[in-house]
Write a structure and sequence with these properties.
Radius of gyration: 26 Å
Order of helices and strands: HEEHHHEHEEHHEHHEHEEEEE
Mean pLDDT: 76
GO biological process, one term: methylation
InterPro entries: RNA_methyltr_RlmE, RNA_MeTrfase_FtsJ_dom, rRNA-MeTfrase_E, SAM-dependent_MTases_sf
Number of strands: 12
Helix content: 40-55%
Number of helices: 10
Keywords: Methyltransferase, rRNA processing, S-adenosyl-L-methionine, Transferase
Strand content: 15-25%
GO molecular function: methylene-fatty-acyl-phospholipid synthase activity
Largest sheet: 7 strands, mixed
Strand order of the largest sheet: 5-4-3-6-7-9-8
Protein name: rRNA methyltransferase 2, mitochondrial
């Protein structure tokens, strides 16, 4: 056989060889409501190949294959989101309107890593919203998000977060006062009742007095947060890699993030404890009519937590987003419009619900 014929036969064999490849079609599918704006791609997958070399050789490759076929993971990659978890919050935002733009809202994201929920919150509260994330694991924060790396259950970390939100609230009130002053002056100009502006020194003195008044008011009212989000999960204890200080280390950023341990009772108990800790923090910092979202794993303590939330909030919804995997036991409580006279505190190792300073009931 001549050289040219041999090349042609090889080319023909390569052309007719079947290709094991996922066919992707990024076209939005019908949404549950006409106003839905988040992206839902659809895809088709060819029949699996019986070639043993194409089968996954480990749990890591299985996870990669599942991610490559997951429509929400693919859509998150296309839209520049940190993870597919962003669509869970987008669905809840679409349904309950947790965030409002141009309202100077302050949002606290507990367990923010890798940052997809913080991305959604920052975009939904733009242009003047403030988002702070807290997580035990190191992660590069999204642009515009302030973060604290530390254990949220630590009192020192909680105090750092409270000081941060108080500073953010101080800046918000200063901005609101400037807007009110500008609106007042514009009305006076329209009505022709403009007073003498005074000297530059007088204006600076007046501004300094207003800042002193705001500084004195700072800390008197801790309830300044608009939305508290909790997507926390207990990480696996670290057993190696202590000398590696890198936010991209796979052990630090992936293997210690616990989804489920396989023991439903342990997962449920751990999630309930984290939800109660987040609710205690929300009781101290969440303003009246503020919102609270927490993730938990289903179990026997669900109804008890729902009872507590119903006493603290006007509306409580149990939510299982479509973007949450069907095999996952994770569910979310969405609590809307916090009541002003009800608090949730931990006293002597027991959580208690107080109304107007009086204990209503206590739970373990």
């Amino acid at each position: 056989m001549s050289l040219s014929c041999r090349r042609a036969s090889l080319w023909l064999a390569a052309a007719v060889r079947p290709v094991n490849r996922t066919l992707l079609s990024l076209s939005p599918s019908p949404s549950p409501s006409p106003s839905s704006s988040f992206f839902r791609p659809t895809f088709t997958t060819p029949s699996p190949n019986n070639n043993p070399q194409s089968r996954p050789s480990s749990s890591s490759s299985q996870w990669k294959q599942r991610q490559s076929r997951d429509r929400f993971a693919l859509a998150a990659r296309v839209q520049g989101l940190r993870s597919r978890a962003a669509f869970k919050l987008l669905e809840m935002q679409e349904k309950y309107s947790l965030f409002r733009p141009r309202r100077n809202q302050i949002v606290v994201d507990l367990g923010y890593a890798p940052g997809s929920w913080s991305q959604v919150a920052l975009d939904a509260t733009a242009p003047d919203g403030k988002v702070i994330g807290i997580d035990l694991l190191p992660a590069q924060p999204p642009k515009g998000v302030s973060t604290i790396q530390g254990n949220f259950l630590s009192k020192a970390v909680q105090e750092m977060c409270k000081n941060f939100v108080l500073e953010a609230d101080l800046k918000r009130r200063k901005m609101e006062r400037r807007r009110e002053w500008a609106a007042k002056k514009s009305i006076e100009i329209e009505e022709g009742e403009v007073e003498e502006r005074g000297s530059y020194i007088d204006l600076e003195r007046r501004s300094a007095q207003e800042e002193e008044e705001l500084e004195q008011e700072k800390g008197l009212n801790m309830r300044v947060v608009d939305v508290v989000l909790s997507d926390m999960s207990e990480p696996w204890p670290q057993t190696q890699g202590f000398k590696i200080n890198s936010i991209s280390n796979p052990y630090l950023s992936l293997h210690r993030l616990m989804n489920t341990s396989g023991i439903s009772l342990r997962d449920h108990a751990g999630s309930m404890e984290l939800c109660k800790a987040a609710l205690t923090f929300a009781s101290e910092t969440l303003k009246p009519d503020g919102h609270f979202v927490c993730k938990y794993y289903e179990g026997s303590g669900d109804d008890e937590l729902k009872m507590v939330l119903k006493k603290m909030f006007a509306k409580v919804h149990r939510e299982k987003p479509m973007s949450s995997r069907k095999e996952s036991r994770e569910t979310f409580y969405v609590a809307l419009r916090r009541r002003e006279d009800v608090t949730f505190e931990r006293v002597d190792g027991m959580y208690k619900i107080l109304q107007n300073g009086e204990v209503v009931c206590g739970i373990v």
